[in-house]
Amino acid sequence: MLDYLQRILNARVYDVAIESPLDLAAKLSTRLGNQVWLKREDMQPVHSFKLRGAYNKMARLSKEELARGVVCSSAGNHAQGVALSARELGCQAHIVMPVTTPELKSDAVLALGGNVILHGDSYSEAYTHAMELQERHQYVFVHPFDDPDVIAGQGTIGMEILRQHQRPIHAVFVAIGGGGLISGVASYVKAVRPDIKVIGVQMVDSDAMIQSTQAGYPIELKEVGLFSDGTAVKMVGKETLRLTSALVDDFVKVDTDAVCAAIKDAFEETRSILEPSGAMSIAGMKQYVAEHDIHDEVLVAITCGANMNFDRLRFVAERADVGDEREALFAVTIPEERGSFKLLCETMGQRSVTEFSYRLGDEREAHVLVGLAIRDRSEVPEISESLSAKGFVALDLVDDELAKQHLRYMVGGRSGASGNERLYRFEFPERPGALMRFLSQMHPSWNISLFHYRNQGADYGRILVGIQVPDEDLAVFREFIGTLGYRCTDETDNPVYDRFLR
Predict the structure, then answer these.
(1) Which residues is 334 bridged to in the sheet?
(2) Dmax over Cα atoms in the chain, in whole Å?
(3) Which residues form the ACT-like domain (predicted)?
(4) CATH of domain 50-141
């Protein structure tokens, strides 16, 4: 530790990096019953901590080494750190990135003057190719985590935390990919304030460091999850494993939904959008507090990156409430008879509906996909019991990945029982009870044969409805549509409806 303490104290990072703020997270503090601080590495010039280690390594290269150029492998953030450092130091940087790297990150590397080479589906495959280039062209390899100078550069984050918060700290939560960040932070914290716990956070599908510490040697994973691309490492380094095994107090594994919820938490606190790896520390902290019943302590989470592709936000928004246990998802079976649909809505009471998908397909029973806003997971059994009391069969889908990733967008299809169906799109003010008021105005002799609704958090809700109206009732039906007061569009003659739903 003394060797690394000296390295960290003498690290050259501030030519390119800032001393990032340590911000109090007021809302999270109240919710968790602890004082929560966020170490804002997402505010670095490349929106990630990685430039600290990259620059500290490259600033120590000789003129001859810089003239040969450098090469590295990275899922994105280390690449930007190397590219920025190369620009500052006047050398050429060759960056090997997995083909799965978000375009935002590869474009950022190009903008900084780096030579981007896309290769492989994971960091490990990109690493192998970078090593081949290093040997072929005699480039200097800048490792993203398993290098003492890189580790020391990341360790300056721990130095800043202790300088910025000199009062007691219970624990610091750190995301782990290859282990460079937690190795550096733990090396400083344990040398100066050994009473502070250092807690590592990994994804459940990318837990190479946890498996390796348990085994006592580096374990290579066959596959890694790609949602948190910044920590998708199949095999950790020997040096980072040595330091992590010796210095880290505990580990937490988090899933995709928990990280999505943490991204939302961070946005509500800071109005910044973290990437998945950047929010892992928050997700781990929340889980650790719940599992260990922590109260009235000072907790620090390092928000280590904010290079998020905009298109990924739709997925994050969909999964955030599930991850925070604020949405329940059910498959409900109801009798296919008039009044069942309305009774189902009445049974759900005043809970806000987040999703409702239904398609007529059987004369005896119907299957409805229902999403409901909840305060926490404890409400789910209560909802199931109330549905059962009315004779409905409800299947809890909140932990079903097939349902969450695919089924909820695929409910529907063609129906041979949808004669005399008219298809309409409606927009109505989005407020509690609006969906029930819409349904209550329907004429009892008109059967709802298709229904899709998804709350998108906007001021207006959007519904797609199929209604079976006999030919002799068309005039009355059109009059009814005109009196609803909702903006609507007749889609009955839309060719998409004809091809996919009729």
Answers:
(1) 366
(2) 89
(3) 328-399, 422-493
(4) 3.40.50.1100
